[in-house]
Amino acid sequence: xxxxxxxxxxxxxxxxxxxxxxxxxxxxxxxxxxxxxxxxxxxxxxxxxxxxxxxxxxxxxxxxxxxxxxxxxxxxxxxxxxxxxxxxxxxxxxxxxxxxxxxxxxxxxxxxxxxxxxxxxxxxxxxxxxxxxxxxxxxxxxxxxxxxxxxxxxxxxxxxxxxxxxxxxxxxxxxxxxxxxxxxxxxxxxxxxxxxxxxxxxxxxxxxxxxxxxxxxx
Length: 218
Prior knowledge:
The relative contact order is 0.20. The longest helix has 12 residues, at 202-213. The protein has one domain (4-213): Vaccinia Virus protein VP39 (Rossmann fold, 3-Layer(aba) Sandwich), CATH 3.40.50. The radius of gyration is 16 Å and the shape is globular. 27% of the residues lie in helices and 26% in strands. The protein is α/β, with parallel strands linked by helices. An eight-stranded mixed β-sheet has the order 1-10-9-2-3-7-4-8, with helices on both faces. A two-stranded antiparallel sheet has the order 5-6.
């Protein structure tokens, strides 16, 4: 077990279960994360995501998330609606209580099947009984297309910053165990939080490191 300060303001290359296993219990203030959706995703240009075809990581990763999160704090997790039963089981089994649901409206369709897919989803999960925000966030938010040039499921900074500001305080530690290209960490840095980003794939870890290294607060 290592002191939490050895992890903060870093983009860490590794498996999040192993990395979080080295972090002290109750040491981070907020978790905002976008794990694989378990749908075998392939982008238009052929990119795929590690861990998106099996769920062996799902339960142990959220058990670790719950352990390292401070009592009476929030976790926001995006998820694939196709596999909501698996995500909900993992969250509740870890100890989280769903306390809100967030919908992000797109002005474009990312795919089409029986319907055109024009939104993203996330659950607001609580560990214990966190204080309710003085100004609760709207549960329907806008989504600006980023082009997904850095990662096949890249999230825009604006909605992430809104989540971080709503569910953490300045100076808090925001953890993203599935960091991808580092958007959550970057948003956290820009709004005055510390961050811990963990990414398993080397190419996205390099991208995230470069983004954070090349960004300064105004």
